[in-house]
Write a structure and sequence with these properties.
The structure is a homotetramer of 316-residue chains. By secondary structure, the first copy, chain A, is an alpha/beta fold. Chain A contains 5 helices and 17 strands.
């Protein structure tokens, strides 16, 4: 293992989701997750979680025929880091070009990962200034909404990819992320790989797309405060007729306490709490799980649900 | 604000505590906090928390006459970062010199902060290999002990300092940390300043030492998994006759859920849970609290306890 | 101690609160506590918690000049128990007479406790039938609201009384309740006494009224699901400008985890969680606390807040 | 529904468990559940949970060939209630006779339920007086152990029975319990029935024994303080190699948050938290679930685990 050098990417910034059921999806994010609409543009609305320091977290876009994921933007730590990463992306031949950023986001370099997922990288951003949602404690972006699931912040994205190896190399070699954990099948190939910036245990993840379709989403995840929040979220989804796919339970991988639901448009949404889990070690070795080890199921023994390997968006 | 550049210090490594009641203090850390003794040397024992990836977390040293803090070691992210910081410390005239590291820690450059607290910086370290404390999940340093307070990892240290300004400048200019929050008194001076590496909201903190004695400790803190752990810890300390000084409650500053106790030797120990709170913004502006604002007390209105401003170790 | 015989009173039914700030108080109960308005009549609205099996929980009544408590109704376990208790009340010379019950409550015998608090006892009641608030699980009265504090059910009432001894005897000898805990001052008098029906550790409580005014309220309490709910409630009250008087903390007496706030009308409202605490022993001896013991403060050492002994409603 | 009359049975008192792996079972209850050994007699040890007001909670008996359940004792609320129930049992022809009680328990009338499970009923009992386990709060039976799962109190027993109807009638007609919930199959027969005394939602439960063997156990359950305790318990069982059969999850029936494990002897042990759920309504109608409704699985959608319908003790 080479010695660690610092991260050029600060964090996952925001994600665009497509939905064929726009009104129901909007209800899910705005009313159940307590997100705030900060802008509307064309067929899209931009929503923010209460603890988001930037203007928006999710861009929700109506798409008549299919759910799925649009662009995922990540923030660079400074202008030099942005330049370094753009150069690396261009060198890898995956660049698309510069665009004006959306809703508070500065100039964004657009590119694609090897599976065809659209991504963007930016540094400049506008910090959210609360108006009628001023928090009582000034070290908080906006008031705690106190309703529904109270989604706090975006935590990670997990893409499906036809070639998890190629996408993983892109994460480490081109974007400069580190890998925390991975599943290696008996045939030597990876079933999934988890990548992170800084102390978080994962931010960007690839899972094997059994359809080999390309450009599909496994899920995005929000991070609440506590495990109790996730238990309460399960009650709220139950009361509101949202399909609970799996959990609450604890992942063996990265030990996240989780709940998976499908938003009305069909996209899988996770609520995930890594608790006090931070990867403090700058040289943390990658934890690799074998096929045999994964047969034990999740941390407390629950078998991984079948639909994890049959449902992704768009559905193909 | 200048643009952020990355952190050379990865995290707070370990801390030496002095105690005039060695046996009782050892009982506190080993039996109540469920820490494991990994080495004994002279008048000291080295103890580790269960989620510590390095060999040890706390060095507990018998000192007949007084409690207090010995050396605080921090880990650099790589050899180059170590060199950079040593050069900066030497340039600041605060260096002491290289020493062999203790118990799994590589060569350590020893220095002092402007208040006279001894510190060390190292890069090389040995990862803990569990023996009879093997965890069931391989992505964990050792087995969850399942007893007492189950202290998970060291979270931060809060020193008392005669000159909080000077110590703060040392943190940012010499060690390259960032400041997250601070209290500025009406007279323009700082009552306390919180510094952090990476996503954690604080790691190293200075509070005004009203005695102007020098080299004193306000507290060290351990991070448990959840707020419920802190509530349970309060019950355990109650049953074991440990002085609970304040809490459980929520800090306004950095919004940490906290509990403060005094270990038998007199050192103040905090159990602190920042929950899902991460400082994702690489350019996060410092949050400054005024004297007026601090009069509101803690987050939910509890007044800050008097002894916070009268008790430190050594007691003088 | 005489052998236990069963309880004629099943539980605390509902309470009328007076408020000089009707609109703000209504906002507090309906919007922050997520209670549902089920009826309006004259200057009163009737509100229910989501897990209330009867029609209503709180009757909120506008009263221009003062906050305070109106009638407290308790439910008898069956018609014979109702008759027995009415006979005992009449024998004690404290009866007022029969009235038609309010909003789903059957014939109610109205009476006064020795301090002048109005009370009622009834057996017949109407069970709530959910309409647009149907729960997903049929063993639940109505849907979990998933907003604000989600007040689950009324837990207890704590009255101020000029003569705690006389009121206490009324509870045991006339209403047939049992006493779980009490505070006896050095002068031999009681500072407070806790009474309960069945397994709950308290339902009806008297605290000494230092003003000797008569017919005043110390507080009413709601029971949420978990301690985490109470921590979250504190955040919600903080964000909404509600005065948090004390807590979250754990009572030494009955070990309840608590939070006290003042609703906008001035009445003290507690959120209290006794957790798994049930008084299973049918002959449970009364736990008596001395003045000396109470100096230790609450369970984890927080001193009892001064305003507990200076604020009651109506304010006199 | 006839009007409610009060309960003659106060609560489930204690249970005898058989184990073919005595030492390992003892380790499970004493070391993992933090129960205290209070007596040893022949092939049995008597253990108590920390919040048990009587002397013991579980009698663990070595039995070379098979796990399973011995006598289950329940406590009557007073001597008259005891007499009434003994008369009813004798009238039902299920009485065995009076015996001296065990370890702090007074004279016990022994009988059998229609499935052949041995039961006992007693009124006199000895309250536990803590010695080296004195609690800091005097309203608690003994000190909070602060280790392992910290089992607080016995919550309920769930027997397998060849004829759930007959056993259920015995509960209501002979023991005078009430039924809270039940599952009725499409063929009109009951798959399971839950019975309770007083405010608890269940204490004694019968589930259909698919083997029709007679005198078998589905599980016994302990009640911890909080849901977080159950999540922590799962971690502790994981670390200690205990088979986690199902959970943590939330039951649809009675809405209990649960975790099921198998103790080393093979008996299924549940940790169950009904939270703030109390059956306040003295006339609470029985909630009946259909086969169709049960197909939805547990509250949040997890399918009921297969082994619930294939594993009982003794294994036959």
């Amino acid at each position: 293992m080479t010695a660690y050098s610092s991260f050029d990417i600060a964090h996952l910034g925001n994600v665009e989701l497509f939905t064929p059921k726009f009104d129901e999806s909007l209800w899910f994010f705005r009313d159940l997750l307590a997100m705030r609409v900060v802008a509307e543009e064309g067929d899209s609305v931009y929503l923010r979680t209460w603890d988001e320091y930037e203007l928006y977290t999710i861009k929700l876009t109506a798409k008549p025929d299919a759910a799925g994921v649009g662009r995922t933007n990540v923030r660079a730590i400074n202008p030099e880091a942005l330049e370094r990463r753009v150069a690396a992306i261009e060198a890898a031949g995956l660049g698309v070009g510069w665009e004006d950023g959306e809703v508070g986001t500065g100039p964004t370099y657009v590119f694609k990962d090897p599976d065809g997922h659209e991504m963007g990288i930016y540094y400049e951003t506008e910090r959210y200034v609360a108006t009628d949602d001023k928090p009582s404690l000034k070290n908080q972006a906006s008031a705690f909404p106190g309703r529904g699931v109270n989604a706090r912040r975006l935590d990670h994205i997990n893409w499906l990819a036809a070639d998890v190896e190629a996408c993983g190399s892109f994460m480490t070699d081109v974007l400069g992320l580190r890998e925390s954990e991975r599943i290696r099948l008996d045939n030597g190939r990876f079933a999934a790989r988890w990548f992170h910036c800084s102390l978080k245990s994962y931010d960007l993840v690839y899972s094997d797309d059994w359809t080999k379709h390309g450009n599909r989403l496994h899920h995005i995840a929000f991070a609440p405060d506590t495990r109790e929040d996730i238990l309460k979220a399960a009650d709220i989804f139950l009361e509101n007729g949202i399909h609970i796919e799996s959990g609450p339970h604890k992942h063996a991988i990265n030990q996240t306490f989780f709940l998976y639901v499908w938003e009305p448009g069909g996209n899988r949404i996770e609520f995930a709490n890594a608790g006090a889990r931070l990867l403090l070690d700058p040289d943390q070795p990658v934890v690799e799980w074998t096929e045999e080890e994964r047969k034990k199921g999740q941390a407390w023994g629950m078998k991984t649900i079948e639909t994890f390997h049959t449902h992704g968006t768009p559905v193909v």
